[in-house]
Amino acid sequence: QCPGLEPLCLDLADWDATEAAVAAAGPFELLVNNAAVAVLQPFLEVTREALQRSLDVNFGAVLHVSQIVARQMIAQGVPGAIVNVSSQASQRALRDHAVYCSTKSALDMLSKVMAMELGPHKIRVNTVNPTVVMTDMGRINWSDPQKSAAMINRIPLGKFAEVDDVVNSVLFLLSDKSAMTTGSSLMVDGGFLVS
Questions:
Q1: What is the pLDDT of residue 137?
Q2: Which residues of the chain have pLDDT under 50?
Q3: Contacts of residue 42, Cβ cutoff 8 Å, sequence gap at least 6
Q4: Contact, 142 vs 95, CB < 8 A?
Q5: What are 100-138's pLDDT values in tens digits?
Q6: Is 26 a catalytic residue?
Q7: Which of 65, 99, 100, 173 is catalytic?
Q8: Where along the chain do its domains lie?
Q9: What is the pLDDT of residues 37-46, one digit of tens each?
Q10: CATH number of 15-194
Q11: Environment class of residue 110 by beta-carbon count within 10 Å: exposed (0-12), middle (13-18) or buried (19+)?
Q12: Which pLDDT belongs to residue 1?
């Protein structure tokens, strides 16, 4: 659907392999960090493995890939934009999501610090924070009406997000139409956080 894009298949927890592949793929003007894992466990049952995997992907990979790309943007001397896909879970506690909520909160704060430090280089950094998104995985995990009812009942618009809802928000934040927006979180949650 997007000519000219070349996907890279990487284990983002492997910093050396990521550095080599991403550095060779540039130069960049735009970056969307969208990789994430959600290992759901009750707080008292969180394992070290689940914590480490979530930190590596949801936080560490974003930090590392953003460093590589931002360095290239600075070296080119051109403006850039980075959008990190976070979650409504960064701002609302959800049962069995202790690690997921925490890594997404950390991602929101990382994005603010990035915005502050990269702004003088004309690189904008924002987050998009969606509710449940009806991807293939989202449909599998949330198609049970009994499970989804409690969440949907807290969303004033009465539905989960579709992929295009998130994509359109990301495109806005990458575009010049948001040229004065940095360090912000765009909620794509149907009003979940106001309910």
A1: 79
A2: none
A3: 95, 96, 98
A4: no
A5: 999 999 999 999 999 999 999 999 999 999 999 999 878
A6: no
A7: 100
A8: 15-194
A9: 999 999 999 9
A10: 3.40.50.720
A11: buried
A12: 58
Question: Tokens 């976070």 label which residue?
Answer: 86
Tell the residue number behind the tokens 């979180």, with chain if given. Answer: 185
Amino acid at 105: S
User: Which tokens hold the place of 40?
Assistant: 């759901």
CA dihedral 36, 157, 127, 44 (to 10 degrees): -40
> What are 107's two structure tokens?
């991602």
Q: What residue type is 131 in one-letter code?
A: T
Contact 96, 54 (CB under 8 A): no
CA distance linking residue 161 with residue 142, whole number of Å: 12
Instruction: Determine the Cα–Cα distance for residues 128 and 28; give it in Å rounded to an integer.
Output: 20
Contact 108, 129 (CB under 8 A): yes
